[in-house]
Amino acid sequence: MNIMVISAHPDLSRSRANRTLAKKLKEEKNLLYRDLYTEYPDWHIDAQKEQRLLLAYDRIVLQFPLYWYSCPPLLKKWFDDVFTFGWAYGTGGDRLRGKEFMIVTAAGGTAESYRSGGDNEFTISELLRPIQRTITKCNGTYLPVFVTYNADKGTDDYLAAEAERLSELIRRPIEALAH
Ligand SMILES: Cc1cc2nc3c(=O)[nH]c(=O)nc-3n(C[C@H](O)[C@H](O)[C@H](O)COP(=O)(O)O)c2cc1C
């Protein structure tokens, strides 16, 4: 399975969680790792190149720190620029059909805080529904979300274990991911 990771962290030099996950992912075979903020410092996303790359990969992993219960803005712009009418959706727009998308995110909040009655009230899956629907509207397959909670306070050992957990499931077939 060919995997493309699209990472979007506004300041990887200050990152711990995403950097630890990224380091592990970069060791994987048949995996293209890209960082949007490095590739597009001027925010001019090359939509045709992005579309060509999307066609070439089976599974697309979107990796980002959770910012205000969503993705950082350059990844939002990536959706806006790349998932175009007639290509990704609308008349004749079914080029993403059958592609698998997996969100890999790190959150400052704890797992206990992301539930009804908890500090953050909702689960991460609930909060990421706009991204889920964007993908399913474009006929993509939305895989279960991978979340590293407590990302800021977590020890180096915890983050390393999270990276290991991610590398164990990144290639799992959909049947083994969704319960
Ligand atoms: C602008 C901003 C918004 C954030 N919003 C959230 C949030 O909505 N929920 C949350 O749990 N953590 C939030 N955080 C914490 C980040 O998710 C956390 O610092 C990050 O995932 C840690 O990963 P890193 O070490 O790779 O930067 C926010 C952080 C920043 C800077």
Automatic annotation (TrEMBL):
MF-aspect GO terms: electron transfer activity; FMN binding; NAD(P)H dehydrogenase (quinone) activity
Chain ranges of the Flavodoxin-like fold domain: 1-168
Domain of life: Bacteria
Keyword terms: Oxidoreductase
Classification via InterPro entries: Flavodoxin_fold, Flavoprotein-like_sf, KefG/KefF
Name recorded for this polypeptide: NAD(P)H-dependent oxidoreductase
Phylogenetic classification of the source organism: Bacteria, Bacillati, Bacillota, Bacilli, Bacillales
